Structure formats: structure tokens, C-alpha cells
Amino acid sequence: MIKISVYQDECGRANGFHCLGHAGYAENGHDIVCAAVSALTMTAVNSVESLTGDTFSYDEDEKEGMMDFKIASPMSDAAALLMGSLLLGLSMIEESYGRKFIRIE
């Protein structure tokens, strides 16, 4: 199962996430849940980096299925929108495939 913890700023807005694990939906290399989560999270990280001036911390461990991302600077409106979009997409995956494979906390 992929467990996603959402970081929040002092205003309660999502400003990062910690993702851990593998979905176990299908064999490695054929797991559409893992692929979808990876695509959304990497796009969010790359979008914050490329489209905003926000600074952030980032760490990953592919083997463990770990990704940790947190905006360090005061969050821009653009980054807040990108984080909201990420959470919407992850929530839709959780809703479609079930908490057996992905759980957002």
C-alpha cells in the first residue's frame, strides 16, 4: 500500500507530502496505481520547481517507494494551486482503486 501524509502550512494549506510504499495492485512494472501516483507526484514537484520561485526540500528512495517533498519558503499562490491539484488527483485514485492500495492521511 502507498501511504501519503500531507504536510500543511500555518494556514492549513497543503505544502508538501511524504509518500511511502508500493501499491501492490499488479506486478512491478505493470502497477497502474503506482504509475499514476508517481506521475502525479513527480509532475507536482517538477511543476513547483519550474513554474514557481518557491524553494523546497526533496528526498526519494525508489526501492522503498519513498518520496518526501515540502515547500520551505512562504508558499506562492501558484504552488498552492499545484498542491491542490495534486491532492485532487491522488484523492481520485484513492476513490477509484480503494484504500487497500493507496491511503491519504
Topology (SSEs and partners):
Layout: E1 2-8, E2 14-20, H1 32-51, E3 56-61, E4 66-71, H2 77-97, E5 102-104
Parallel strand pairs: 1-5
Antiparallel strand pairs: 1-2, 2-4, 3-4
Please estimate the helix content.
25-40%
Unreliable residue runs: none
Give the spatial strand order of the biggest sheet: 3-4-2-1-5
Q: What's the tally of helices?
A: 2
- Major sheet details: 5 strands, mixed
What structural class should be given to the helix and strand makeup? alpha+beta
Mean pLDDT: 96
Terminal residue distance: 13 Å
Question: What's the shape?
Answer: globular
The ordered string of helix (H) and strand (E) elements is EEHEEHE
Strand percentage lies at 25-35%
E-strand count: 5
Give me the Rg, rounded: 13 Å
